[in-house]
Amino acid sequence: MKRITTLLVFLLAANFCKGQSAPTTDTVYITDIKNEKSLLAQTQYCFESNSSLPITGVLQKSFQRFKSAFPKKRLSPETINSTLYLKVLLKNNSAKTVSAYLDPGMYFTGFRVYKIEEKNISIQDSSNASNYKLITLDAGEAAYFLMQVTPLKTDVGAISPVLINADYLPQYKLVLTRHKSDIQVFGLVMSGVLIMMILFMLTSFIINRKKEFLYNAAYSFCMLLLIFFNSLLSRSSTGFVNFYYAYFDFFLLVTGSVFYMSFTRWFLDTIDNYKLLDSILRWSERFVMLLLVVFTCFHFFTDSFLPQFYLELGMKILFLLLGLTFIYLALKRKDRLFNYIAAGNAMLVSFSIISFILLSFKVKPTELYSTALFYYYLGIAGELTFFLLGLTYKNKKELIQEIRKKEAHKQEERNRISADMHDDLGAGMTSIRLYSELAKNKLTNTPIPEIEKISSAANELLTKMNAIIWSMNNSNDSLSNMIAYIRSYALEYFEDTGVHCKIDIPENLPNIQVIGNIRRNIFLVVKEALNNILKHSKATEVSITLVRVDDSLTLYIHDNGPGIDMKKLRQFGNGLKNMKKRMADIGGDFNIENKNGTLITMHRKVQQF
User: Fold this and answer.
1) Which of the four CATH numbers 1.10.1790.10, 3.30.565.10, 3.40.50.2020, 3.90.950.20 does domain 477-609 have?
2) CATH number for the domain whose boundaries are 27-177
3) Among residues 314, 207, 311, 326, which one has the least CA distance to residue 263?
C-alpha cells in the first residue's frame, strides 16, 4: 500500500512539473540553421476557399497551430480545394544579410511567398510553381513570411515546411533525389522480383498461348509500376510526380484491377464452370472502366476534389469486397484453383488491413516494419506469388490431361491394330497352319520337308503374333493378367517336352497397372529364358516363382540342370544381352547365376509399374 501511495505522489508531482517547462517560441532564428530545419512546430496555418481574397484579407483571418507528433501533417480531403496559407516568424540575429529557401514540403500546383512588413507586403519570388522560394533578411531584421500554397488534387499531400540554408540547397536537392529510405529500397527490390515474375509469365504465354498468363502479366505490370514509381518518385517534386500522384497511380490501380478480373475469368474458366460469376466479372470490368472515365472527367475538367476522392474510395471498397467474395467462394466450393485465388486475395486483404491500421493510429514509421507501405507491398507480392503458383499448377494439370488424352488415343489405336491383327492376320496364319497340316496328312508316305517347315513357322509366327496382340491390348494392363499369361504360356510350352514345370504364384496379387510395353518386355525375357532351358540346360524340372517383398516383385526361374557355365556364355549368343537390355529398358534388374542349376532373377519395384 505504501508503494502505491508513493507512486501516486510521484505521478502527481510529475503532472505539476509539466507547467514549469520552458515555453516554446514562434521565432525562428535563420542564422542558427546549419543545413535545413523543419518549421512545422513554429508555423501557423489557415485554409481559404475564396481564391480571390487579397493577402491583407488573409492576414485578418484566424491562424491555427499544428498538433502533430511528426514533422509533417497530412491534408484532409475537405481542404484540398482550398488555398493553404502558412505563416512563420523569421529573424536574422547576425550583423549581416542572410538568405535562405522556403519549401512547403508537399505536392502542390502553386506556391508563392510574401514578406509581411509593417507597411509593406512583397512577393519574394514571382514564379508561382517554383519548388523553393528565396527569402532575405537584413542584419537584425525580423519579419513574418506567408506561404501561399495551392494543394495538388491528391490525398497523399502533406504539410512539412522546411527552411533551407541558401548554400546547402544543391546538397539538399541531391539528398532528396539520391538518398533512399528503407521502404524505398524495399520497394525497388520488390520491383525487381515482380519483373522476374512477369518475364516468366510472358515466356509461359509465348509457349502455351494461354490468355491467363498474359492477363496476369498485365496485372503484375500495373502493380510493378505502382511499387516502382512510389519508391522512385517519393520526396521528388516535378511535373510528372504531380501527375502521377494526382491521377496516374489511380489509373494504374483501376487498369490492373480490370486485368485481374480478366485473369480470374480465364484462370477459373468461368464461362464453362461458373456462369453467374463470369457474368458478374464481365459487368464489373465494364462498370470499373466507366468509373475510371468519370474519375478522369472530374480530375481534368473540374476543380472539385471531393467527388473523385469518394469515387476512388468507393472503388477501393469495391475491390476489397471482390477479394472477400473470392475468399468466401473458395471456402464454400473447396476448388483448388479457387483456393489459389482466395489465398492471393487473403494475402492482399490481410496486409492491407495492417497497413490501414498503421495509418489510422498514426504509427511513426521509425523502422521498415512500422511503415504502412511495407505491408502493402508484401500483400501485393504475396497475392501475385499465389496467382503464379496457381497458374503453374493449372498448366501442369492440363499438360498431364493432354498427355493422358494422347495416350488414350494411342491406346485406342493399338487396340484397333491388335483387333485387326487378330481378325485378319490371325485368321490368315491359322489357315496356313491348317492347310500345311492337311498337306502333311495327305503326304504321309512321301513327306516333304518344306511343308513341315511351313507348318512349324506358321505355329511359331502365330504364337508371336498372339503375344504382340496380348501386349497391345490395354484391357490386359494388370499384374494379375500378365502373370496369368506367363503361367499359361509356360505350362503350354513345356507340355510334351519331358520337362516338368512348377509355378508358384501368391494368391493375393496387388492391383497394379502394368502397361503394354512393360508386359511385352517381361514376357519376352521369360520366353527367352524358357527357350534356353529347353535347348541348353538338360533339365527335367523348372520352377517359376513370384515373390513380393515390401514394394518390390521378384520373379525366379530355376531349373535342375547342371547349371550355366559362366565361362561359356557364348552358347546363348545375344539372348542374354537382350534379356538384360529389356529389363534395363523398363527400369528393372536382371541376374543369372549357377545355383544347383541355372537361376534367373528378374526384379522390379512395384511403384515403377
Assistant:
1) 3.30.565.10
2) 2.60.40
3) 326
